[in-house]
Design brief:
Blueprint (H helix, E strand, L loop, with lengths): L5 E4 L3 H12 L4 E4 L4 H8 L8 E2 L3 H6 L6 E4 L5 H10 L8 E4 L5 H12 L4 E8 L1 H7 L2 E6 L4 H11 L14 E2 L2 H30 L4 H11 L7 H9 L23 H12 L4 H14 L1 H10 L11 H34 L5 H9 L8 H11 L10 H24 L4 H13 L6 H12 L33
Parallel strand pairs: 1-2, 1-4, 2-3, 4-5, 5-6, 7-8
Antiparallel strand pairs: 6-7
The protein binds 6-phosphogluconic acid.
């Protein structure tokens, strides 16, 4: 009887396409789905003529697998993952491997690693990016979990992953426990930021410059040949050319209410938990939240006054400014994302390879771009690079874009166009390069009203002082812990 190299559970579009991708690379894949008819449909449809083996029960499915058994779950994140794990464990032997390829929340992955380890089963939680197309022809794959399992899946994963120009796969081991899903979460947060930056550029082009959809498409098309060369800029140009059935621009018919499945929010929560100012992704999440308040916005638009956008000046130079704002803000966003990964790695004792992560994102995934090879180069040059902004290349790029970036944020503000991500990126930049922030006043106020104490510039760090600001307060101060 043919024994499958790997089994996959969950035949939604990502699952189906991964199976076909593995089949193309010579692997025999066994498949199972909770609704068994989906297995038959798949075998009679997209998998017709392939080596894929169908199974109608979990027992049958497990019996088709070579040992150590490799079972990949492509089911909805959350309870379904736990349910399948629970059903699989009694059917598996020690040393077998369960892989979760969904967008799971990283603490769940860590918990599953711990539970399964005690049962002798290895667990991998892997981020997979690239949508349907990527899954079929080469996604970016970010595996983490039990390192003992990696040698058993490395070849399959690296074979089916996207490759960069030099032939290297966009897949490598990320780290222990939830590290793979954490890195995928950061990828998604950055995806939120990139998308919001594009949307801010769009609103300026449309509302301030009054550009037509063809002009906007051409502009994004030309940006895609420059520093911003990336999948998201490329598909943005396509979107501005897509017509609805009646020949009008489809985009104009789409409701301005953004959806979100939670990975951007998790990134924001993780940033707040670790005290890392990942402001751009935070603003990108909030921009989606604000968009979702459609009815309220419509009401408010009738009452709340502001300037009406109009443009005087040189259109080409304004467009160049927008380009620079987008590029510089994008650099800030990636710098912030990397800052967060660094802190998480410290907390969880992960040894993250930052250049390797850039390489994994260089191809296959939604944020793939030429820009990521520059990040890879920065970490190749200096593996201990503390902050991307301190790399000579990125420092130089931000510097070159600065005037256009500031002009864009200023013009948007004067014209009443919201640019939360352009603006927060600039404020972060100005804050990060500020040797003395007004937090001295903040500390004084905290100490004044709540005896929260402060440190002094003329004393060593860690020594805390309290002043009786009014002469009426007592000598007792609050404790000085920081979250
Ligand atoms: C990917 C994407 C994908 C993500 C969607 C939807 O890497 O292929 O990141 O995993 O789920 O983009 O995300 P939102 O619904 O939250 O926008």
């Amino acid at each position: 009887m043919t024994q499958a190299d790997i089994g996959l559970i969950g035949l939604a579009v990502m699952g189906q396409n991964l199976v076909l991708n593995m089949n193309d690379h010579g692997y025999t894949v066994a498949v199972f789905n909770r609704t068994a008819s989906k297995v038959d449909d798949f075998l009679a449809g997209p998998a017709k003529g392939t080596k894929v083996i169908g199974a109608h029960t979990l027992n049958e499915f497990v019996s088709k697998l070579k040992t150590p058994r490799r079972v990949m779950l492509m089911v909805k994140a959350g309870d379904p993952v736990d349910q399948f794990i629970e059903m699989l464990v009694p059917l598996l032997d020690r040393g077998d491997i369960i892989i979760d390829g969904g967008n799971s929340h990283y603490p769940d992955t860590t918990r599953r690693c711990q539970t399964l380890k005690s049962k002798g089963i290895y667990f991998i939680g892997t981020g997979i990016s690239g949508g349907e197309e990527g899954a079929r022809h080469g996604p970016s794959i970010m595996p983490g979990g039990h390192p003992e399992a990696w040698p058993h899946i490395k070849k399959i994963f690296q074979d089916i992953a996207a490759k960069v120009e030099t032939g290297e796969p966009c897949c490598d081991w990320v780290g222990d426990e939830g590290a793979g899903h954490y890195v995928k979460m950061i990828h998604n947060g950055i995806e939120y930021g990139d998308i919001q930056l594009i949307c801010e550029a769009y609103q300026l082009m449309k509302d301030v410059l009054g550009m037509t959809s063809d002009e906007i498409a051409d502009t994004f098309g030309s940006w895609n040949t420059k520093e911003l060369d990336s999948y998201l800029i490329e598909i943005t140009a396509d979107v501005f050319r897509k017509q609805d059935v009646d020949g009008t621009l489809l985009l104009d018919q789409i409701l301005d209410v953004a959806g979100q499945k939670g990975t951007g929010k998790w990134t924001g929560i993780s940033a707040l938990d670790r005290g890392v100012p990942v402001t751009l992704i935070g603003e990108a999440v909030f921009a989606r939240c604000l968009s979702a308040m459609k009815d309220e916005r419509v009401q408010a638009s009738k009452k709340l006054k502001g300037p009406s956008p109009h443009f005087k000046g040189d259109r080409q130079s304004f467009l160049k400014n927008i380009f620079q704002a987008l590029y510089a803000s994008k650099i800030i966003s990636y710098a912030q994302g990397y800052m967060l990964m660094r802190e998480a790695a410290k907390d969880y004792h992960w040894k993250l390879n930052y250049g390797g992560i850039a390489l994994m994102w260089r191809g296959g995934c939604i944020i793939r771009s030429v820009f990521l090879s520059k990040i890879k180069q920065a970490f190749d040059k200096n593996p201990n690079l503390y902050n991307l902004l301190l790399d000579d290349f990125f420092n130089g790029e931000v510097n070159q874009c600065q005037t256009g970036w500031r002009e864009t944020v200023a013009a948007a503000t004067m014209q009443g166009i919201p640019v939360p991500c352009f603006a927060t990126a600039l404020s972060f930049y100005d804050g990060y390069r500020c040797a003395r922030l007004p937090a001295n006043l903040l500390q004084a106020l905290r100490d004044y009203f709540g005896a929260h104490t402060y440190e002094r510039v003329d004393k060593p760090r860690g020594e805390f002082f309290h002043t009786n600001w009014t002469g009426t307060g007592g000598k007792v101060s609050a404790s000085s812990y920081s979250v």
